[in-house]
Input
Amino acid sequence: MKSLIIWLCFIPVAILNGGLREYVLAKAITEEWALPISGITLSVCIFLTTWLLLPLVTKAITSKDCWLVGICWAALTIAFEFIAGLADGNTMTELLAAYNPFTGNLWLLVLATTLLSPIVTKNFRIA
Output
């Protein structure tokens, strides 16, 4: 349950990252380059947030628990993106397009980072 607090920290980080992409990167280097760079920066931010906060809220966490946390975080992230995207007026086709890395969107990297950050943190920092 405490790990949910960490996942909630991802939301403002992702919003700030999106703002950086739209208002700074896209103007400076074009949307074509801003989108993949944004995916990388968001992935790094998610990993760093996990690296810094997970040991603080979970003193004794097992590898199994880390996998469960990662799966829950990834599922919550997907659900949040679809709910927020549909509420914002996006179509299902538009939302699913984010899962195609050939468009330059590295959303799959973000999801993989969200899934794997807890176990990586456990194996290299907590353990």
The mean pLDDT is 93. The two ends are 20 Å apart (CA to CA). Residues 93 and 99 are 10 Å apart (CA to CA). The first helix runs from residue 2 to 29.
